[in-house]
Here is the input.
Amino acid sequence: MDLKKFAQDKEILITGGAGFLGSYLCEAFIEASAKVTCLDNFASGLASNVDSLKDNKNFTFVEHDISKPIYFENKFDLVMHMASRASPFEFDKYPIQILKANTLGIWVALGIAKKHGARFVYTSTSEVYGNPDPKFVPTPETYNGNVNPIGPRGCYDESKRAGEAFVVAYRHQHGIDTRMARIFNTYGPRMRADDIYGRALPRFIDQAQKGEDITVFGDGSQTRSFTYVTDQVEGLLRLAAMDEAAGAVINIGNNKETSILELAEMIKKLTNSTSKITFHPLPEDDPLRRCPDISRAKKILDWTPKVPLEEGLKGIIEWFR
Ligand code: UDP
Here is the structure.
């Protein structure tokens, strides 16, 4: 994939552009000579993530909550809707903002794409599969999921699912060129510092480095598939740039399934930590297995993850220090 060929002189809007993944996309598109408008309300994004771009003449920052209408003079060629809090500890704290970003927010973002005749990319999530039936793990995009709309994850899972329905509706009714990624657990530098209160991977690193107990929920046999940020960003860029991806929904994640206990042990070893691993109740509706079938990403995007977990963990542990 030749990103420069696609991006040169294009006008790109990235909602949630100051977020963990959004900021890497802003950088990649600027590097490929595009003009980037980064929209963020700092709900979970950080100005420091796009600090290196602020003086670039091709970069514009707009502070705005995408769940409220906004009008642009620019003629966008591509809109990427990345905005949404995504960390499980926020499902309890900010369920309404999450619902709004993924319903009203995507409606506003799709409206911008429609007005400008822009290509539209939506970053959906593996959470649309909820707690998948083990018969469907590794999970293909054709699996419709097993989601509890009124459980603690309902605000995120159901609004992300509604977001997908919005995309399909705009494609169908207005003929927009749309694509969707279902992103699996992604980690790397620029994960939010306050994710140490939520997500297992940064929390375990923080606990291990401080010599505190590493808090495994349940017996730690539940699994996730951890994707390093460079792999995730490469997948998203391909999804945005490649004509072959038009209309598709594609899992982007590492297909190596790891149990949470294995993750805790690996982090303890890599940080030479004296921490104890302790066991705590499993939260309600915690998915027991999560692993993508990535045949579609391989076929359409010619994409496979390259960074093994141990190597990626070394990268993020260093960054944490
Ligand atoms: N988890 C854990 N200990 C913690 C935080 C999370 O064992 O201190 C578990 C959590 O219950 C889940 C897995 O780790 O089974 C991944 O959780 P995370 O919050 O990272 O994201 P999720 O993939 O559930 O959205």
Observations:
- The longest helix spans residues 154-174.
- The CA atoms of residues 31 and 103 lie 31 Å apart.
